[in-house]
Predict the 3D structure of the following.
Amino acid sequence: MTEAGPLETALRRRRAEGAKLLVPYVTGGLGQDWPAVIEAVVAAGADAVEVGIPFSDPVMDGPVIQQASARALAGGTTPGAIIDTLGRLRPGAPTAVMTYYNLIFRGGHRRMASLLADAGVAGAILPDLPLDESEDWTAAADHFGVETVMLAAPTTTDTRLAAICERSRGFVYGVGLMGVTGQRAALAASASIMAKRLKAVTDKPVLIGVGISTPDQAVEACLEADGVVVGSALIRRLLDGGGPEGAAELVAEFRAALDAG
Amino acid sequence: MAAVMGEPGPQGRFGDFGGRYVPESLVEACDELDREFRSAWADPEFREEYERILADFAGRPTPVTECARLSEELGVRVLLKREDLAHTGSHKINNVVGQALLTRRMGKHRVIAETGAGQHGVATATAAALFGLECVVYMGEVDVERQALNVFRMRLLGAEVRPVASGSRTLKDAVNEALREWVATVETTHYCLGSVMGPHPFPWMVRELQRVVGTEANEQCRRLLDGGHPDVVVACVGGGSNAAGIFSGFADTDAQLVGVEAAGGAAIGHGVPGVVHGMKSYLLQDEAGQVAEAHSISAGLDYPGVGPEHAHLAATGRARYEPVDDAAVLDAFQLLSRTEGIIPAFESAHAVAWLMREAGRSVPRGSTVLINLSGRGDKDAAQAMDLLGDRL
């Protein structure tokens, strides 16, 4: 049994207090004020923050996050600049970067893991790096103490599900539906089933992401899950010019709904 | 040691390249495809039906044509494997017939595909019509414009063409969009990938479905060359399916294998190892790992990556990969038309352009060279008209 890192420790502690976990996603490099957005969502009640490092070819992302990534890249952002900035932030909650594997592979497994660790980033989420291909990265990440969050999907078989939970650090990311990131009108039935299947095989925090668009959907997902990741709904607000205040407002709505149950 | 161009194992590794870098949502579908293809490919009835359709519907075998006038012009003996004569105008039909059969075998009723020049899109739409499958083709907006004829052909065949407006609006982005859709529809839909690229089992499966090109060409060459084989086998490479097909027939001989890349899309020539579209291979990218945009006269080669087996063949030295530029391609396009009465696709003209440059240099006079003429040039006529115009 590996000792839990700061991300998992923080999430377990909040869960033990009876809270449902709220992890908003913020695209790094989106606008000048993205560091302020991270601070604002933490102040509004986020338990951790997922920070996107934009990639040119984000195959797991729908139009909203694609647009945010393209805009951030056009603004000249780089993985190095985002990690540097995170190193200077003290948002008061753990952060995990979410990016695509080529940026890690190109940067070098050990070099990237050590950069993230030095910047105080607790975790990493790589949606195009499935369990079977993850060893080079997880060896480096484990060495430097970066928690690699693994994803499980509705189509994942039971055998794989157990292995994914075993390998996951920080929390287990249950993909709520068969599809890419984006807002949906209703919570998919698959989200609750996914959460239930994961809870049956792991004691690690189970968060559902993809397709959690409203506070009501978050509450519904949390009937089974320990928490939710909220991405496109927040990014939509940022793309519309909401800024840190708009982001905080939305996260506060999710927080209040989850706290009220 | 495994045979050259043999079976890449359950993880789809070609040396350091290949693999399966996909979202977890697609892992089960890739596993299923791997299982189904292995069982189908070992099933004599499946093979028989595949071969029958290639013969009766697609017009196989395609001939090997001896090019008397071009040979005289270049000082080397030039043979063409005539994939331009296959139904729908290119080698792409070989792959889609196999994948359409697999789609039916898996109980799925719908296919999606990406296309660059439109040849794979047309081939997929054709196979979908033949098998009564629903068909959606993703195509970059830039390509929709420069390949309007193929867009119309796909629609005529009953497929829906969805223009892709993200990124560079070419083949790379069409692949992204097809992958995104597949994540959402994987339970009913097969992704009919058009080249020897993407996550395992696609690079291996598509090569096996194109192997017929190499197998036929090997036999045809033996007949023409008194039991021998050509000194050089050359093919254009974007993702690399036609090259993989013809190389597979000669990998175990001592023929030199040459892949010709577009100068603006030379993943092996100018790229470094990277991971995109589910595979580890050579990739045009910046220092941070952002994928670069390719630029080529030919929409089919406008791709910043390359199939992982080609990366491996390059790394081991079994094949070599060289770039040619757009101007040389236009010259070759005209030369083959005038000397042999064959209008090649811009993609295939890359292979001809390479030989025009290398004949008498790295290819000694008197050599025998087999070019895989992967497709016909009708689709490029409008673009060539704009580019050549009054010069003709």
